[in-house]
Amino acid sequence: MRQCRICGIPETVDGVELDESGVCRACRRQIRHIPSRKELREKVRKALENSEKVLVAVSGGLDSLAALGLALRICDEVVALTVDTGALHPEAWRRIILARRMSGIEWEIIGDQKPFLKLFEERLTRAESPCGPCSRMITRRYERRARELGVDAIVTGHELPHGTSPVVPKDPPVIRAMCGMTENERREIVEEEFGLTVDKISGYTSNCIVLPFALKLFYMKYGYSFEAPRLAAMVRYGYISREDMEQIMTPPTLSDLKELLRECEEWIPESLKQMLQKVINKISNSDLGRENGD
Ligand SMILES: [Zn+2]
Fold first, then answer.
1. Which PANTHER family is this protein grouped with (predicted)?
2. Angle at Cα 156 formed by Cα 152 and Cα 159, nearest 5°?
3. What is the Å distance from ligand 1's center to 82 Cα?
4. Which end of the chain has fewer CB atoms surrounding its CB within 10 Å, N or C?
5. What pLDDT band is residue 98 in, cutting at 50, 70 and 90?
6. What is residue 183's three-state secondary structure?
């Protein structure tokens, strides 16, 4: 299988074409316009300094906690918001509780799991990625709340796509606070602000329990990870290494998924538990599922 020699995206990913020199179209187009890390971090800092009151969207993962820590250092008034999709890993909840206690800030939890659970069921049944629609649903919720609270900006733990600016011109504007920030810098902020160490996790955004299940089903259907384009962009912009990318693109094994469900089943909604058990059964009964690393 050929991969782009810059970002590592496999040729098998839908829509990817490599030229004779082995470079994908996105790399060819974007590689000359990548702003420096320092430049991006300056822009984030300025945007935060110009915002008195902000709403930070926190999922309990490394990136959003670091975004919260950064906002706490710079902004006068910070409100945190967590959207409870029903699929947050218990470890993410533990970090949310500890960070809430350490910071003493106002922390809102929006808990309407139903539409999310419906989405997960529908996507898992078709072996398609739930991430796009799920993150749009989350975004709608914190944007609505931000307008109600009248904050100057929304802060997220995202870094991409940042183009040339980490601030998305919306109402209110969205500051992608992790632009230009390395993983170690994120870890440092989270440790300093909340006394929390976040382990390096496989799957990268594995504070969502549904993601690894969806990745596995998609991989069995298409032979590549639906995270590949996002991860390739992370490599292109220098946020992660090619080795990390390869590791994250490797689908979880059947025993990984069984283990994950075991550790979470007491904490998640019953309907989600049944949904994920069904996925495990489906994979166990398929040769392809068992072949992929089991
Ligand atoms: Zn590329």
1. ATPASE, PP-LOOP SUPERFAMILY-RELATED, EXSB FAMILY PROTEIN
2. 125
3. 34
4. N
5. very high
6. helix
